[in-house]
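User: Can you write out an input/output pair for a complex, sequences first and structure second?

Assistant: Here is one pair. Inputs:
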Amino acid sequence: MQIINPATEEVIEEIAEDSSETISKKFELVKDGQSEWAAVPLEKRIACIENFYAFLDTEKDKLAETLTMEVGKPLQQSYNELNGARKRLEYFIKNSAKWLAEEWITEEDATREKIVYEPLGVIANISAWNYPYLVGVNVFVPALIGGNAVLYKPSEYATLTGLHIQQLLYRSGIPENVFQVIIGKGPAGQALLELPLNGYFFTGSYRTGKYIAEHTASQLVPVQLELGGKDPLYVMDDVVDVHAVAEAALEGAVYNAGQSCCAVERIYVQENIYDAFVDAFVAQAKKLVTGNPMDKKTDIGPVSRKEQLKFLAEQVEDARQKGGTIMSGGVEPKGTGYYFEPTVVTNANHGMKLMTDESFGPVIGIQKVKDDSEAVQLMKDTPYGLTAAVYSKSFERAEAVMKQMNTGTVYWNCCDRVSAGLPWSGRKNSGLGATLSYHGIRAFVQPKAYHLRG
Ligand code: NAD
C-alpha cells in the first residue's frame, strides 16, 4: 500500500497490508492477552495511559509532521489535534476510576446487591483519517483502561500515524498482546468483521457504518457508529457582532479544509442581516491562504483524498446551475497537490446537493430565511443528526430552536466543538451510541449484577 502526501502527491512510503491470515494471528494474540490485561489493577492500566499522555507532548514535533505529511492538514492544526487528544486523555485519566468502580446498590438487606463493570473482551476500533488522534483516543483509550484488548485499524490515509500510536502505546507499557494495529484498506476492515470479536467501534462514513452494523448484527455484540453529518448553523437577526459570527462560522466550515465530522456544512441567515453577514463572511473567506500545509501562513491545506476534488467540483457546479452565486473559490487550483479553494455559495437552497449531501471539504452554502420557524424546518430537513448551531443574543430564542433539533449536540453561540466531558453521539444517519464523557467510559464495559446472600 502506498502512502501518498496529498500536498505533493509523492509516495512517502510503501507498507505491506495485513492479510486475513495475519489479522487472524493478531486476533489470536490479543485474545490470549486480554484476560491477563483485565487482571492488571485499574490504576496500572491508567498509569500506562499517563505515559502515553506524556509521549504525545515530548514526541509532538515528529508526530505533527507525520500527520501533516499524510493527511495534509496545516502543521499548526496537527499540533492542535495532539493537544486536543491530550485534553481527552486528561479526562479519561481523571474520571475512569469513578465510572468503572463497582457500585453497591444495597448492603443492608438480606440479599446484598452490587454492579461490577467487566470488559467486553477484544474489540475492533475501525477509524477515520480526518482526526486520527482524536477519533482514535475516543475509543482505544477508554477501551484499554476498561481492560479490553484492541485491534486498531487506522484509516489507510492515516497509517503512519496509526503506527506511531502503536509504538507509543508499547513504550507506555501497553503489552503487544493487548493492542495491535491492522494495516490496510477496506478489505482489512472487512476481515475484522469476519472474526468473533466482542464489539465493533467505528468512525467513518454512513455507508461503511451501516454496512458494518448490518454485517455484524448476527454476532449480537455492541456496535457503535460515529458517522458523518450535514450540520446546520443558523444566524438570527439579533446577533450583537455580525463580523465575529461570520468569522466563527467560517472557521467552523473550513477548519481542516472542512473535513470535520461536525464541520458547519450549511448556513441559514435571517433576512434582515443576510447581506451584512454575507459581506463579512465572503471578505474573510477571500483572505484565507490555501497552500503548503508545512507553511505557517497556510489556513487551508490540500484535501486528503484525490477523489474528493471531483466530488466538491460537482457539488459547486450543481449549485451554480440551480441558481447559486459563487462568491469565492469554486475551482481546483492548477498544479500539484489536492487543493480546492475555499468556496462560498450564496442564494443556496435545498434543491442543491451542496445543502443536503455531506461535502467534507472547504465549500459552504448560505441560504436566506424569513424567520426562526423557516430556519428550523430547513435545519431539520436532513437524514443526519450530529450537531446544530444557533447564534443569537437571546438564550430563550436559541433554546427554542435547539430543543427542536434531533441531533446529539446543539451549540449556542459556538460551533464545530467537541468536549471530553460531554457525550459525543450522532442520531439518525450520524450514528449509534456515544463516546466521551462517562457514557464513553461505560461504553467499553458490561455490567454484571451480583445477588449476594450470606
Ligand atoms: P470510510 O467509511 O471511508 O472509512 C472508515 C474506515 O472504514 C477506514 O478505516 C476504512 O478502511 C474502513 N472500511 C472501509 N470499508 C470497510 C469494510 N467493508 N469493512 C470494515 N471497514 C471498512 O470513512 P472516512 O473517509 O475514513 O471518514 C470520513 C467520514 O467519517 C465522514 O463522513 C465523516 O463525517 C465521518 N467522521 C465522523 C466522526 C464522528 O465522530 N461522528 C468523526 C470523524 C469522521
